[in-house]
Automatic annotation (TrEMBL):
It is a multi-pass membrane protein. Keywords: Cell membrane, Heme biosynthesis, Membrane, Transferase, Transmembrane, Transmembrane helix. Belongs to the UbiA prenyltransferase family. Protoheme IX farnesyltransferase subfamily. Converts heme B (protoheme IX) to heme O by substitution of the vinyl group on carbon 2 of heme B porphyrin ring with a hydroxyethyl farnesyl side group. PANTHER family: 4-HYDROXYBENZOATE SOLANESYLTRANSFERASE, PROTOHEME IX FARNESYLTRANSFERASE, MITOCHONDRIAL. It is found in: Cell membrane. This is Protoheme IX farnesyltransferase. Carbon 2 of the heme B porphyrin ring is defined according to the Fischer nomenclature. The lineage of its organism: Bacteria, Bacillati, Cyanobacteriota, Cyanophyceae, Oscillatoriophycideae.
Length: 328
């Protein structure tokens, strides 16, 4: 934890209870959590084969939210020194003085504890432990060790963001299967294109606070090439849910193909014009939409009607191929 932080130049006091709540919610970085919950929900649907227990789903999402909120709060505590320097983060609750360090630490501890209790009580111990492991990995491995010391910070650190689907899968089945690890892999490989595109867009801000993001250290050209490579690795990993695992069918296949086309196009444009921050911003924004829609297609594909569509289409294709082979 960084301690050499000068007091905020101005402290904006809370005027009412609503503003107090707003400050603590801001500590949790709610916009980031939404995407994590989408990936968790997709895992719950896939593991349940569309027969979702609403109590398990709700408890898993709430437990996941609590764990992610705890991790993000600790991240805000650790990064409050650089948040104070960067213009876009200087008004966050800690650097602005709206929330005290001690109170934020207590808040994070309560959130983590509630997450463990809820997941362990309603789902199972494995899901609860995985959620806590996500907090530890995000705080110790990414925030403390990698973020300020390695250009591979978001590559290795991306594992923290890929843990939520493991939690979702474990909450339903009590184990972590190959399918759960494929979900982990998809998100793990998605993370570099997602964050490096953002890093190109705000490279100067990272440079200002000495965070060694890849564009700052190696330049935009190298970063764009890495984005291109990881994009194709990610797209290849999405196929594994169809073959050889067979967890997803036609709805997912069609969606995955359709969603991959703009992703590849934007990554290609960035590769050809790596200094264009607007292209990088466009890729960053689309990567969020891509992951949300891809997870949505997984959930839809797990439903009985979608499975019936896949079965019917497979039967007709098989019949057609039989007729063709007989005609030959």
């Amino acid at each position: 934890m960084q301690n050499s932080i000068s007091p905020p130049t101005s402290t904006r006091l809370h005027r009412n209870v609503y503003e107090v709540i707003q400050s603590y919610v801001q500590l949790t970085k709610p916009r980031i959590i939404v995407l994590l919950l989408v990936t968790t929900g997709a895992a719950v649907f896939l593991a349940s084969e569309g027969q979702v227990d609403p109590v398990v789903l709700l408890a898993t999402l709430l437990g996941g939210w609590l764990a992610a909120a705890a991790a993000n709060t600790i991240n805000c505590l650790y990064d409050r020194d650089i948040d104070q320097i960067m213009e876009r983060t200087s008004l966050r609750p800690l650097p602005s003085g709206r929330v005290r360090v001690r109170d934020a630490m207590i808040f994070a501890g309560v959130l983590a504890g509630l997450s463990f209790i809820l997941l362990n009580t309603v789902t199972n111990l494995l899901a609860a432990l995985l959620a806590q492991a996500g907090i530890v990995f995000y705080v110790l491995i990414y925030t403390h060790w990698l973020k300020r010391h390695s250009t591979q910070n978001i590559v290795i650190g991306g594992a923290a963001g890929a843990i939520p689907p493991l939690v979702g899968w474990a909450a339903v089945t009590g184990e972590v299967s190959w399918s759960a690890w494929v979900l982990f892999l998809i998100i793990f490989l998605w993370t570099p294109p997602h964050f490096w595109a953002l890093a190109i867009y705000i490279r100067d801000e990272y440079a200002e606070v000495d965070v060694p993001m890849l564009p700052v250290i190696a330049g935009n050209e190298v970063t764009a090439k890495q984005i291109w490579i990881y994009t194709w690795l990610m797209l290849a990993s999405t196929v594994l849910l169809v073959y050889p695992l067979g967890d997803c069918g036609l709805v997912y296949v069609v969606s995955a193909i359709a969603l991959s086309i703009p992703f590849v196009k934007k990554a290609w444009l960035l590769l050809g014009d790596c200094e264009n921050t607007e292209v990088a911003r466009s890729l960053f924004k689309y990567s969020i939409l891509y992951m949300m829609l891809l997870c949505g297609s997984m959930a839809l594909d797990s439903l009985p009607w979608a499975q019936q569509v896949s079965y019917t289409v497979a039967q007709r294709v098989e019949t057609l191929l039989s007729l063709v082979s007989l005609g030959a």
